[in-house]
Amino acid sequence: MGDPIFDAYYASNMQSISNGTEQERIMKLAGEALLDRIGPAVLVTHSQGGLYGWSWADSRPAFVKALIQIEPKGPPFKEAIFSDEFSRPWGLTSIPLTYEPAPEDVKKPLRWQVMPSDREGLLECVLQAEPARKLPNLAKVPILIDTGEASYHAQYDHCFIKFLKQAGVEAEHLELGKVGLHGNGHLQFMERNSDEIAETLSKWIVKTIEGRP
């Protein structure tokens, strides 16, 4: 395209298979193998990669010192912007996560309910029907959801916080506009204030993992 920053980003992209569920399964295995090899790490994911971050933190919580999800694919259970497909029967993913109590039906593991928006400009959330099953492994991992002010994710990333809290997982929501980082879309790492965003995330990592084993 002629822009060196965009060209460097685009060169890092690679094809993915058309079956999203199979892609999640393969990436889960690959990430587990990597964590088993390198040991504890801080995971930073973005967009589609967020699906894999949930799986890795769930299956290897002792190896994930913290999980930063930069606008992870969502919201819980269904698509919201580009379609309305219910593509994530496990809430955060299309492949199994560790719930307590364990679902009896792996094809329909969770019951769900629609909760109306409590603020203008936000979409309604699809959450678990009560009593909600818990996510005990994710509850062991510090989690941060990062949302850009001008991104389409600003309409629904709050649903992740509600879904996780309902499942017994405390997560923080970094809304960039509220900390003085304005105008960001979905590709934050390509934007002019990306260094400031990286510094903000770095400070959160240091604060969060300080003193943790």
Features:
5 helices; alpha/beta; two-stranded antiparallel ribbon; 4-stranded parallel sheet; 16% strand; single chain; 213 residues
What strand order characterises the main sheet? 1-2-5-6
Q: What's the total count of β strands? A: 6
- Oligomerization status of the protein chains: single chain
Indicate the mean pLDDT: 95
Largest sheet: 4 strands, parallel
Q: Tell me roughly what share of residues is in helical segments.
A: 25-40%
Strand percentage = 15-25%
Identify low-pLDDT runs.
none
CA gyration radius, whole angstroms: 17 Å
Spatial gap, N to C terminus = 45 Å
Structural class: alpha/beta
Using the alpha-carbon principal axes, give the shape.
Answer: globular
Number of helices: 5
Order of helices and strands: HHEHEEEEHEH
Description of the molecule:
It is a single chain. The mean pLDDT is 95. The chain has helices at residues 4-11, 20-38, 49-59, 158-166, 194-209; strands at 41-47, 64-72, 112-115, 125-128, 143-147, 171-175. It has five helices and six strands. The protein is of the alpha/beta class and 213 residues long. It is 30% helix and 16% strand.
